[in-house]
Amino acid sequence: MSKVMSTEAPRHWDAETLRIHRAATVMLGYMNPAAWYRPEGLDFSRFAEETGQQGSLPRLRRGGVDVIVLSHGVETEPTGVTPATLDRPAAARTQQPVFQSGEQVRHLLRSLDGIRRVLDANASEVGLALTVADAERLNREGRTAVFLHLTGAWIGGDLAALRAYHQLGVRAIHPAIEGLRGVADAASDLAEANGLTPLGKEIVREMNRLRMVVDVSHASDKSFWDILETSEQPVVASHSNSRLLCPIPRNLSDEQVKALAQKGGVVGVHFASNFINFAFHQARRASGSMEAFAARLKELHRQYPDPYAFLARRYDPATWQDIPPPYGTREKGPELPRATVAQLCEHLDRLVEVAGIDHVGIGSDYDLGDIVHGLHRADLLPNLTAELLRRGYAETDIRKLWGLNFLRVFRKILG
User: Tell me: the pLDDT tens digits for 200-225?
Assistant: First the structure.
């Protein structure tokens, strides 16, 4: 594929790093589009604008990103998250969807329409891919390729909605997500379904039939194993790290990583400090930020019963200026130990050791708070290439990690 990376390179990257980064097909296996949350609905034009967002289209292109898996879902809020539920997430209901069940599919259809419209409005730089051949064509044209992904199988109990999402261009879904009931238990939410439900199994089988990529991210351990058993195709974990190095439920055990690799899948490393550095998780727990955040959310729900009006205030930075980080934006607060690129690569090293070099990729999960220092903007992604070179990875292996592994799975499933 042809590189879309800007030729204007910061001085701190040496020529070899830039050569290898430009030669690689850089694919982010999971990220969320920046959006303006307004009382009248979502506006995804922000994704294409030169804003402060980590993963805006201009920054992605300057960072040499060729392919992105762009995900959206039904917004949920952590109304039940407390320090205690962080320790035992499966024992309490921690997330609730902002939209009621009858509105969830409608909201997703509106969101997909908004994403498709912003892609169409910026067609000289970006385009929708339905197959890997589409992505290759878009890259040859100097455009960034986008695969659409859903954060949770929000289908309202009706497989017709799943088929409609596919017709609108969705090519990957992780069925489990915190706050979604009746499909699968999620990693950080109440365990009430004993893994994948009968509907969840139907969803996985229908995704196989439609040639959609099944993503086990956010699945509980029982749901993970149920999905692997049910799916006839390889599956991906688009944004997860090593539980051995950071023991949180959203990360994967060595046993899970090995099984996913044996099925032909790929694990994409997650850039969030909370998934990398357990000290960050502990500091967040002790900061008091979580309790203040949850109390503010309850207040907003009372003040703004309309979901879009609520989201407009929820995502207004001014709402959180008096709450300390990581949940708020108050400048004076506790210092949290944000992870480094080297610490992220410790997870990557472990995943490669367990799964093999052919089964690890780069997830990212832009835009998210407390992203690794040095990768906190997509235009800084060559920093990861530099660290991989420093750790002794060969150029052929760096190309696999940056995109060839994910593309192999997508090609097998999508064509």
Answer: 999 999 999 999 999 999 999 999 99
pLDDT tens, position by position, 124-139: 999 999 999 999 999 9
| Integer Cα distance of 407 and 393 in angstroms | 20
Q: Let me know if residue 324 belongs to a domain.
A: no
Whether the pTM exceeds 0.90: the reply is yes
Q: Please state, in angstroms and rounded to a whole number, the distance separating the CA atoms of residues 276 and 247.
A: 9
Smallest CA-to-CA distance from 197 within 187, 182, 209, 186 is with 182
User: How far, CA to CA in Å, does 187 sit from each of 225, 255, 397?
Assistant: 12, 16, 31
Cα radius of gyration rounded to whole Å, the chain: 20
Q: How many domains does the chain have?
A: 1
Inter-residue contact 86 to 285 (CB < 8 Å) = yes
In a domain, 322, yes or no: no
192: in domain = yes
pLDDT tens track for 225-266:
999 999 999 999 999 999 999 999 999 999 999 999 999 999
pLDDT at 334: 58
**132 located within any domain:** yes
CATH number, domain of 398, equals 3.20.20.140
User: Pick the residue with more confidence: 291 or 408?
Assistant: 408
| Lookup: tokens for 124 | 């000289």
Domain that holds residue 42: 15-287+336-414
